[in-house]
Amino acid sequence: MIKLKVNGRERSFDGDPDMPLLWYLRDELSMTGTKFGCGVGQCGACTVHRNGDAIRSCSTAMKDVAGKTIVTIEGLSPNGDHPLQKAWAQGNVPQCGYCQTGQIMQAAVLLKKIKKPSDKEIEDGMAGNICRCGTYQRIRAAIKTAAKEMA
Amino acid sequence: MSIQNIDNATRRNFIGGVFSASAFVLAADLLPETLWADTSEYLGKAAASALKPSLYLGLEPDGTVYIVTHRSEMGTGIRTTLPLVAADEMEADWSKVKIEQAIGDARYGDQNTDGSKSIRGFFVPFREAGAAARLMLTRAAAAQWKVPESECSAVNHVVTHTPSGKKLGYGELAVAAGKLPVPKASELKLKTRSEWRYIGHTAKDPKAIADLKDITSGKAVFGMDAKVDGMVYASIERPPVMGGKVQTFDDKEALKVKGVSQTVSIPPFTPPYTFQPLGGVAVVANSTWAAFQGRKKLKVEWNNGENASHDSEHYKAELMETAKKPGKVVRNLGDVDAAFSKGKIVEASYYVPLLAHATMEPPVAIASFKNGKVEAWVPTQNPQAVQDTVAKALGIKVEDVTCHVTLLGGGFGRKSKPDYVAEAALISKSVGKPVKVVWTREDDIKFDYYHAVAGMYHKASLDEKGKVTGWLHRSVFPSISSMNDEKSMYGFNVEYGMGLNDMPFDIPNQRAENGPAKAHVRIGWLRSVANIYHVFSGLSFADELAHAAGRDSLEYQLELLGAGKILNLGAQGVGEYWNYGESLDRYPFDTRRLRKVLEIAGEKSGWGKRKPGNGWGMGVAVARSFTSYVASVVEVEVDKTGKIRIPKSYFVVDAGTVVNPERAVSQFEGAGVMGAGIALTGEISLADGRVQQGNFNNYQVPRMHQAPIQTDVHIVESNELPGGIGEPGVPPFIPAFANAVFAATGKRVRELPFSKAKLV
Ligand code: FES
Ligand code: FES
Predict the structure, then answer these.
(1) What residues in B contact A63, CB-CB < 8 Å?
(2) DSSP annotation of B17
């Protein structure tokens, strides 16, 4: 039995310990804000926080989240009004929107580590997150907007 | 059956469910024929057919306006943009508008969200639906007050009797208005441009994206997120070689995986491949992960068939060879051979490999077969094609297939081909439960309908002043028509009309030819389609000619365009020019508009101000596609290791009337990123008939630092009819990028992707 905390709630899981966290969140908890994009840690669409760090849930087995605290996009802010989410709205960032929850979760950790990231730091921090629609310049701008608000 | 958060309007439940019995419902297909007579001209073939678009616009007594969008949302913003049009003409308060996604139904007219044509096709019908509603509400108020209609005006959800100042809200008038006859087209008074409040006014406006908050909070329901009660999951092992078949398979180990319940054989397609599934063996399980695990344990012996010897290296050599030989003439003006007998001759060959769509959300579909009928929940660009394809695959009637449309995690043309839905329906029929088929990224990249590989050859003659006297453009590619005809060796007017027979240059002698090529993989349309290779080669060659003539490329492109005029391609040996499905009367090919965007691009980008070289350069290209006119300037830096960075790019766009400028700008920003990816790293290749790439590690798409760091988009003010937005950005970007690399390094990259070229 694997015990973990997801968005503040205690959960237990007794299935295949090798199953990636992504499928537990999506298929079992119906938390579909965390997306499947590549399954191999290449795209960042599945990004969530494990004990405050950004991880790729598609490549993190359930056994590796035992006893850990997981935060997904559904738990990032109570009303979808984290400074990043607000900045995303202000800049009309999304196109199709599929990658955006992963982008926001990645950016949230970036801003926790670096209060006012430079362009280079944003590029490095976000390099693991693909946006096939090509919203990068707006993501970059929204991160800067949020950084200002959080300062 | 339940489905989370997907609102759908169907003819059955729309009137009975979404609206209360007293609601005022305006179904545009109930408008009199006279109204349709006007719109049918606008819609071209779609409305000339027996089935006409039925746009729904409803108003409830509580003031809520429902607007149904029948087009699919894949990132262009169309789910917001079309309702904005109707709401503006209705004088509706946007905060009271609710958007409903239509199911697939031929009565809506064309629903294939492809070809950058949603606004071109439905701008007028949506305006008329809104204007008709406004007029009926005004009439209802005038009748109630017993005053002349002309003394009343409708503004922002309220009708006012101007002399007395009396007011009635739209909601209060809904029931009475619903009892009035629908006005004739001749009675409608569309708003003037200066009266528009939403159309053209979305910049920096939260109206720009209706689903924004759901997207950023993870609540938006994409196809991948849909769930149906009692649903099981399936993952499919498909023939590794196109046209291959299962010889034998052993599922013993697969069935031992916890959660796996059974396997299902999917028959191979009967040629031509169309939208049929590729065939293979499906593993059905109680979770996505169990289905994936079970599939890994399958043992399948394949009969690979004749494509097993296909190899991209050899195929490329063949294409390039064919491009050197005369082909089928698709445009002939003057006499190029005579022109080539004098002056300076320049020639060059270009190559673009196969490309995969790689939408961020891989193909996925839920289908439920019950009592001879199918209900499906799909991220699809074309719900009517879903109905047709599923009906054919299962041998049931089209009207027995209901297709609900979810949000799409990207489309780019991939999701207008519903092979993945037919898979889900076949499996559901076999297991007797709703089934969700999930494609992995590897499935997506290995079993795509690929953008065609192409070889092009260009030859031109220059006179002593450097002016082009003759231009020959040859193109060889496996055609999209192979989808419907496996023997197809040549392209067709749609592919020719994308940069091959409509090169816009004012040159007295021009010939375009298409040589034969056979398809060994599924070929399909991808954002911008044949423009990708034709405009890349054509505008790279224009830059080469400028260089050969010792001239500035932007000035030279202006000179090639000539003084500017309405181009009469019919008189230039083109025969039937496709013109993106539009009549040339309504959408003429106007090279003055090309000149204009090019000139503005020069100003905006500071063209010519800095001397190129030493790893810095700018490139420019211009093209008309999807009836829009676009110039692109790209600035590059190439470092000592050959690494390319794009600090800045510019688009100047004349797309006629632009309804949602904010979303239009984002489409061009995205086009720059996709264009950069095609140029830098885009390549699908085959060996032994098998696709060599499988995920983002080897089919690379741009990441933040590889994309243009900043793209500035300038939209030209225009009163012309609306043109395409989603696709016209990609074609000029790629040659502008290649021309910039040449300016920076002196290296002419004629074969994509750049990653294969030695730049230093
Ligand atoms: S789905 Fe996890 S990184 Fe792509
Ligand atoms: S918004 Fe579509 S993939 Fe990023």
Answers:
(1) none
(2) I
Quick one: DSSP state of residue A27? I
| Residue B591: C-alpha distances to residues B318, B416, B598, B628 (Å) | 35, 32, 11, 11
Beta bridge partners of B283: B235, B263
Residue with the two structure tokens 């590897």: B442
C-beta of residue B213 within 8 angstroms of C-beta of residue B414: no
The residues lining ligand 2, judged by C-beta closer than 6 Å to any ligand atom, are A 94-100, 131-133, 135; B 75, 360, 410
Of the partner residues A34, A93, A132, the one whose CB lies closest to the CB of residue B410: A132
DSSP secondary structure letters along B549-572? TT--HHHHHHHHHTT--B--GGGG
User: Which residues numbered 218-237 in B keep a CB inside 8 Å of some CB on A?
Assistant: 218-222, 224-225, 227, 233
Q: Which amino acid is at B393?
A: A
As a whole number, mean pLDDT of residues B631-639 equals 98
Q: How far apart are CA B644 and CA B642, in angstroms?
A: 6
Rounded to whole angstroms, the Cα distance separating B667 from B671 reads: 6
How many CB contacts within 8 angstroms connect chain A with chain B?
188
Is the pLDDT confidence value at B284 over 50?
yes
Distance CA B750, CA B350 (A): 5
- The pLDDT value recorded for residue B117 is 93
What DSSP letter does each residue of B352-391 carry, written as one string?
Answer: E-BB----SSPPEEEEEEETTEEEEEE--S-HHHHHHHHH
Give me the pLDDT at residue A99, please: 98
A139 touches chain B (CB under 8 A): yes
A140 at interface of B, judged by CB pairs closer than 8 A:
yes
Interface of B with A in 77-116 (CB under 8 A): 77
Give ligand 1 pocket residues (Cβ under 6 A). A 36-39, 41-46, 56, 58
CA dihedral sign, ordered A133, A136, A142, A146: positive
With bands split at pLDDT 50, 70 and 90, how would you rate the model's confidence at B509?
Answer: very high
Distance CA B459, CA B384 (A): 44
Pair B88, B199: CB distance under 8 Å: yes
Q: Residue B230 and residue B239: Cα distance in Å, rounded? A: 29
Is ipTM > 0.85 here? yes
- Euclidean distance between CA atoms B654 and B719, whole angstroms: 10
Please write the tens of the pLDDT for every residue from B139-164: 999 999 999 999 999 999 999 999 99
Q: Is B608 helix (H, G, I), strand (E, B) or coil?
A: coil
Q: Give yes or no for a contact between B40 and B47, defined as CB atoms under 8 angstroms apart.
A: yes
pLDDT at position B534 over 70? yes
Q: Is A7 on the interface with B (CB under 8 A)?
A: no
Cis peptide before B702 (omega within 30 of 0): no
Using CA coordinates, name the residue in chain B closest to A133. Answer: B670
pLDDT value at residue B419: 98
C-alpha B130/C-alpha B135 separation (Å) is 9
Give chain B's largest Cα–Cα span: 84
Q: Nearest-CA neighbor of B30 among B134, B188, B182?
A: B182
Sheet (strand B280-285) strand order: B260-266, B280-285, B232-237, B435-438, B364-370, B373-378, B401-405
Please check whether residue B732 is in contact with residue B631, taking contact to mean a CB–CB distance below 8 angstroms: yes
How far is the C-alpha of A7 from the C-alpha of A18, rounded, in Å?
A: 21
Report the C-alpha gap between B176 and B60 in whole angstroms.
11
The pair of structure tokens assigned to B601 is: 């691009």
Gap between the terminal Cα atoms of chain B = 61
For A34, nearest residue in chain B (alpha carbons): B218
Per-residue model confidence as pLDDT tens digits over B41-61 = 322 222 222 222 235 688 888
- DSSP per position, B484-502: T-TT--S--HHHHTTTTTT
Do residues B735 and B535 make contact, with C-beta atoms less than 8 angstroms apart? yes
Which pair of structure tokens corresponds to residue A84? 């990043």
- Residue B254's H or E segment, with its range, is helix B252-256
Residue type, B20: S
